[in-house]
Amino acid sequence: MAVQDLRDWIALMESAGELRKVQGADSDIELGVIVDQFQRRMELPAVLFDEIKGYPKGFRVLANTLTSTRRIALTLRLPAESSKMELVQAWRKYAKKYPKIAPRWVSDGPVNENIRRGKDVDLTIFPAPKWHEHDGNRYIGTGCIVVQKDPDSNWVNVGVYRVAVHDEKTAGLYISPGKHGRLIMEKYWARGQDCPVVVSVGHDPMLFFVAGLEIPYGVSELEVAGGLKGEAVQVIESDAGLPLPATAEIVIEGRIFRPFRRMTTPIIAVFSVPPRFGNNSSSREFQESKQSGPTRPEGAGCF
Ligand SMILES: Cc1cc2nc3c(=O)[nH]c(=O)nc-3n(C[C@H](O)[C@H](O)[C@H](O)COP(=O)(O)O)c2cc1C
After folding, report:
1. Which of 160, 183, 201, 214 to mutate to test the pocket of ligand 1 (most atoms within 8 A of CB)?
2. Which of 98, 151, 217, 291 is most exposed by smallest CB count within 10 Å?
3. Residue 39 in domain
4. In a domain, 104, yes or no
5. 178 C-alpha to center of ligand 1: Å?
6. Strands 156-159 and 138-141, how do they pair?
7. How many Cβ atoms sit within 10 Å of the Cβ of residue 190?
8. Mutate which of 162, 197, 207, 303 to test ligand 1's pocket (most atoms within 8 Å of Cβ)?
9. pTM of the predicted model, to two decimals?
10. CB under 8 Å to 54, separation ≥6 — which residues?
């Protein structure tokens, strides 16, 4: 089965016996406690939450994606029965030649099924989990990917940096010193500009896998993912010209504001008023916001 998006991945894992479904959990801590149980050790299943308390059916949360050898193997398009050593060998083989395939720009895709902009944006409609008791916010992005473009070279960096919801139109992320996303962000700030950013929530976990790795400066994780898959990742051009995964479940586009006063580290970057906000979930609200075109039956964010 060729995995093109998160839904294909979920179907593949279900058929491989690698998925547990949970209904009726509360996204306020309870969901996090359940996930903690599944993260006690490797080789336990991924967990897909639906009918989350207070949210419409189909607003799903997927967690614990890459914590089994079998799921990692299947995600990397390797034989399901690969051993840990075979995974290491496969990665070493890939890293020797490091084949890359540039992403393919497409004009449309499922992520465009529902778009909200400006005053219609509301990040709080999603069941972003409050994972732990002392978390300051709900995290819409943990298995997310953050896309930015280097203003000097047009190199597109993709990293995993967690994203918290602050209010309807504001989210925050923290990028540690030295991370590529931080260097890019600071280049914009040094020019007196805010940094354009796209966050994808819910995509082929292969993208998450690659974005969480220390891929060298100047190399795009999108090209590495293409090289690993053996085919180009399909992307759509965002309003700010950034590539966003065409089959993502939820994409948030916004800007990381320049710090407006002297701050000591850690700097919490806040991005806000996303002009574009794609989601392909099937809620009536979303369907009404789109006059025509196909909608897919269920959405799942990889929070
Ligand atoms: C689940 C997960 C969450 C992460 N969260 C953060 C984060 O919030 N901030 C951060 O700086 N790095 C975070 N990282 C680590 C970076 O993703 C990792 O260092 C990556 O290589 C960064 O990409 P870059 O080298 O392109 O900057 C996280 C990694 C994972 C797998």
Report:
1. 160
2. 291
3. no
4. yes
5. 11
6. unpaired
7. 10
8. 162
9. 0.89
10. 26, 27, 127
Q: Is residue 66 part of a domain?
A: no
Count of domains observed in the chain: 1
Residues above pLDDT 70, as percent of the chain: 85
Look-up: residue for tokens 């390797």? 78
Span 110-151, pLDDT tens digits: 999 999 999 999 999 999 999 999 999 999 999 999 999 999
Domain that holds residue 145: 91-301
Position 42 in a domain: no
pLDDT digits (tens, 9 = 90+) for 52-86: 999 999 999 999 999 999 999 999 999 999 999 99
Antiparallel, parallel or unpaired: β 59-63 and 299-301: parallel
pLDDT in tens, 12-66: 999 999 999 999 999 999 999 999 999 999 999 999 999 999 999 999 999 999 9
Total number of residues shown for the chain: 303
Query: 303 falls in which pLDDT band (50, 70, 90)?
Result: very low
Instruction: Determine which residue's CA is closest to atom 5 belonging to ligand 1.
Output: 161
CA dist 219 and 117 (Å) reads: 31
Kindly list the strands in the beta sheet with 299-301, ordered across the sheet, starting from the edge strand earlier in the chain: 19-23, 46-50, 59-63, 299-301
Q: Which residues line ligand 1 (CB under 6 A)?
A: 142, 157, 159-162, 174-176, 179-181, 212-214
Of 168, 112, 117, 119, nearest to 140 (Cα)?
168
| pLDDT of 186 above 90 | yes
State the Cα torsion 149-122-144-158 to the nearest 10°: 0
Nearest CA to ligand 1 atom 6: 161
